[in-house]
Amino acid sequence: MMKKQFFFRLFLYVLVFGLWSLWLLQQRVSSFSNYIVDDCLHDIKGQRPAVLVLGAAVYGGGDVSPVFADRLDTAIELYRAGLVRKILVSGDHGSAVYDEVNAAKDYLLARDIPAEDIFLDHAGFDTFDSLYRVKKIFQVDSFLVTTQDFHLPRALYIAKSLDLDAWGCRADKRFYKDIQQMKNREWLARVKAWLDVNLGVKPRFEGMSFDIEGDGRQTWDEI
Hints:
The chain is α/β, with parallel strands linked by helices. It has helices spanning 2-30, 40-43, 66-80, 100-109, 127-136, 152-161, 179-198; strands at 36-37, 48-54, 84-90, 118-121, 142-147, 165-170. The chain is globular, with a radius of gyration of 19 Å.
């Protein structure tokens, strides 16, 4: 009987400690919302080399999802305001049948963004890979990043952990019908981000480096 009580108490202690640790982890990542700028168009001072657009879903016909469109539209606003010189889109182009970055490129070109100012990172398979490759492949240490509010703290947590001078710009321009599902997934995504940062994970692909001040077309159709 005593042995059963001991193991039951041990199980409870481990459970409570695990839940407490997960709560602390969530709070830690959430604290990086301090690096979100309330009004990027008016509060950002000076010009940065680039804005990073984190990839999101595209549909079968190559149309970007509303979430992705809002991220791209925010980047366009920052570019036209002279706050960034280049737009860097990082997304999943891991197969011939699914291509986030070229869909984004077409979206930007259709809105008269100069081709030479559009950079594509075809191996941004997740947020960690995208942020890691900004520094490693595109050699950018200071930039703006645009995504939705629920996603920004995790992106900024990863960026700051990689010693990047990144500031977040919200891309929430409408109500998203699956927003609660995205928020629920974010809880587990934050755990993954913490593990990626603290275990020294490397992205799936690294590859050759590019000069962000050069012609973005050198990055087109590279995987």
